[in-house]
TrEMBL record, chain A:
Cofactor(s) needed for function: Mg(2+)
Similarity comment text for this entry: Belongs to the phenylalanyl-tRNA synthetase beta subunit family. Type 1 subfamily.
Residues that hold Mg(2+) according to the record: 452, 485, 488-489
Lineage: Bacteria, Pseudomonadati, Pseudomonadota, Alphaproteobacteria, Acetobacterales
Domain annotation TRNA-binding: ranges: 39-148
Subunit structure: Tetramer of two alpha and two beta subunits.
Native source organism of the sequence: Rhodopila globiformis (Rhodopseudomonas globiformis)
Protein name: Phenylalanine--tRNA ligase beta subunit
Origin superkingdom: Bacteria
Keyword Nucleotide-binding: yes
TrEMBL record, chain B:
Binding positions (Mg(2+)): 260
CDD domains: PheRS_alpha_core
Protein name per UniProt: Phenylalanine--tRNA ligase alpha subunit
Primary location class: cytoplasm
Amino acid sequence: MKFTLSWLKTHLQTDASLERITDTLTNIGLELEGVENRGAALAPFRIAHVLEAAPHPNADRLRACRVDAGDGVVSVVCGAPNAHTGMKAVFAGPGTFIPGTGTTLKVGEIRGVTSAGMLLSAREMGLGEDHSGIIELPADAPVGVPYVQWAGLDDPVIEISVTPNRGDCFSVRGVARDLAAAGLGTLKPFAPSVVPPAFDGGPRWEIAFPEACPWIIGRTIRGVKNSPSPKWLQDRLTYIGLRPINALVDVTNFFTFDLGRPLHVFDVAKLTGGVLTLRRGAGETMRALNGKDYVLDPEDCAICDAAGVQSIAGVVGGEATGCDETTTTVFVECALFDPVRIARTGRRHQIVSDARQRFERGIDPALMPDAVEAATALILELCGGEPGTVTAAGQEPHWQRDATMRFARIAGFGGSDIPADEAVGSLERLGFAVRARDESRVTVAVPSWRNDIAAPIVLDQSPGLDPAKAAAAAAGCAEVEAENDLIEEVLRLRGLDAVPPVSLPRESPVPATTLTPRQQRTALARRTLAAAGLMECVTFSFMARSDAERFGAVPDALRLLNPIAADLDQLRPTPLATLALAAKRNAARGYSDVALFEIGPAFAVDAPEGQKLVAAGLRSGATARNWLTPQRPVDVWDAKNDLWTLLTALGMPLESLQVTAEAPAFLHPGRSGVVRQGPKTEVSYFGEIHPRLLLALDLPGPMVAFELNLDAIPDPKRRRKAAADLPAFQPIRRDFAFLVDATVPADNVLRAARGAERSLITNVALFDVYAGDKLPEGKTSLAIEVTLQPRERTLTDVEIEAACQKVVAAVAKATGATLR
Amino acid sequence: MNDDLDALKTETDAALAAAADMRAWDAVRIAVLGRNGSLTAMLRDLGKVPPEQKKERGIALNQLKEALTGAIEARRVTLEDAALDARLMTERIDPTLPPRPRDTGLVHPIARTMEEIAAIFGAMGCTVVDGPDVESDWFNFSALNIPAHHPARADHDTFYLPPSRGGSTPAVLRTHTSPGQIRTMLSQEPPIRVIVTGRTYRADHDATHSPMFHQCEGLVIDRGMTLGHLKGVLIDFLRTFFAISDLPVRFRASYFPFTEPSMEVDIGWNRRTGELGRGGDWLEILGSGMVHPRVLANCGIDPREWQGFAWGLGVERITMLKHGMADLRPFYESDVRWLRHYGFNPLAPTMLHEGV
């Protein structure tokens, strides 16, 4: 919402400075977006009298001028063809910055004649494109006066953002009222006198769609002459960025901003039949004033004459019946429309108009008759003519309502001790009328323009609530809402900065744990992976569907209906997908050896429970080059190592996990694994990214990755640990080399060995894997170290030998292995 | 009578002095103390000595044995020391060579800020609540007093997903973390002190807007909570987070459908230099307000008994301000150069007693 300072002052009597006004606007909730003051840059340009413009003695095209700008006569060389003796022009002295040329003037000499200034064209002042000559002002323009002041260009334009609840402040008058209530002056009275009708006639209203339009009034004015508006009105509009069209249209735009009261004007000569009907749209096409065609929907409210739709009510008028310079009889429309319908119609047709903006926030219903009188008076003043009777359909809806505020609640809710008199005074200045008041409370009548105060309460309670609880809550809302509305007004006008801050009282001397076990786990996972050498990333939750489907299921339910870009349309099946693309971006920058991780959502179905929290990591390229350690490509064991590090940190007992050689299709079928806890719970997978995927997405290879479902990790049990097992005897270590079929998982050998003598064997470690020429085909040698831990006494050689035999027997039984 | 002993002593001392390495030393040792060694022979021959001389010679032999053993041992230590010194002279490294590499990763600045937020509000008694990114229309809008036609919906630039099975209203990607408020009020009884942090989404993309970003929502519901407490909580948070004890904080009236009164909160800074805390300019940093009675009622909380407040702040925004980052977009780019520059040490997590 834009307006000028001078416009504001037509409603607000104030001595406050511009800065105080703009600061107050921000403070009371009408946030200042900006102030544009064209006058400031143009202040040095003064009106001058060209006493003489003689031909330059040494140049054909130049003139040597003697110029009086109010403080003595100076010599100026001017190249404009229209410079002539006796004219009034705009002068800039030495030291002045010229916006149009970007230069600062200096005293100079042009072909032997001193030039101590410049006579300016519109373009040089930055006021337009005209550079055919210097500006020539009327003969009565006062010499020495700043040009902007004389031309009325020094009116600052103020722009505020109006919150959705304050439709009343989409008007200069509404802003003035708030400022006056905040103590910045007094609101000037607005009471247009009734313009008596000179005849009875013109179009009549008929409402066939009362849900959309409860009340509409109108008035015919005949014998008008519709020409361009006078300068003051054109200035009002151009300053705030509107284009003046003609007097009748400009009047409607003026009141839209001045009173927040959109009006519409029909050219009566272009209307067919004597009745304008408000009805539902029926698929007709209408060409609007903006030149576009719209097809009306049954939910739209159309204003129609006998020939068809002539206006989309409250949103945009039709081209066919608009007013132009030929208009001699005009019909002024002033209506009340249902805000929700206007919003829907505007959204349906994607029309953003000043009228829609106001109607959808709610219009002052009581203002309509006054607005018509004010508009009539202005049209008569600008265009002449004679007014008809005011015609109406429907009736003024009942908008009157009261609100009550208990004074104690200003402190009890608002946290500020404001004296009752001050609180009531604030409300009165805002237009609330006191209906009753006692020691403890005041009841006020809500003004017609404040539809945000004590509004009808619409709840949307959770269906799962206990009915008694829901009813009590609804009753509570009905009781306090209007009071809260009033407290807000009182606090707002005083400035919320004035409310004293109070630190939150402690609930307990030491705060309880802030994070849930799941959140603690997430934090620990993050630290562990970063400490393991991976860089944490945050990537988008959405990506291109065509890429996403290479990493998992891409249900339609997870495809955005309105993606911001075609490559951000699908919720990702795993963070690995977006991480892989991040690695690709890094490779494109020359960094193909990266280690990245992300902890974020993976999406399966559109219900909330379809979202998993996943820790995913990947490594690409090769290990760092270093003189001590040879560089090598990353491999699947790097990924498994990252995963195992993470699982260990999270307290997962690794021996309770099953790893099988199967994995999602985007991983290498032979170099990947799935990790399960129990037969069903899939916890994780790891592996090398499938070479075909690398190729398809042009990813830097080799690339290995893992994914861990953090939601599948059980919460730790808060149990005291068992006493530590610290035997007094030295452990004994024995090595075994087993020959097994290459298809036997190593884990089977390790588990069998571990289980061979549970009371004695405390650790089994695989230290060598060999497959090659020295072994029979299809066989692998697995070398393990078994740790035996005596507890009561040192073991005898016989006992050790017996334990070793058990290991061999158990492994042989479980896997068919033989000792090598 | 014991001249031979003296001679052996002199001889051995000389031999030891001449032994330049362990092999020579060992030869001396064996020549003296070995099975066929000179001293061993003398001891063996003690039996042949006349009885009257036996005692005296025995004492002398024992003294000699002790002296020779000591001398041999001393020579060993000397030789070994010398050998070690010689070896050490050859074992030289260039200490400026780099060690074996051990990469350390870093924590993303968004995670760091979320951790700091949790630490500070945690100290005020808040717990952290998570919520899903895909929400129903009711949680994201209706419950928060934003009905279908409300103009605020248009401001949210909502991403929509197809309606879930059997439904007719599209699901949404949450446009703010406020649905977390609703979930909390439905799942726990007041008093409530929570913060909700997480990903949020809006269809907007430029230098200052990302289609995905992070928010922290706060909710406090209790008896007797006033706007003054809200201001206190936010001032305490902002001054701790930015570590500026006198950070100017300004409160302006505003409007959000789910709070009343609503406030925008600004902090003092210098627009030109970006320095926080001084400079006379104001920077909008978060939105807040007293929870709207309709929101409480929608969740079954009686606004006559309970009142409270809520706030929402942009995680990236305060991160950029705190660390002087100019651009929003690199947060999601995963450029390892940027991550290395702005990332945080995982082993130095946020702890109030170590300083935020």
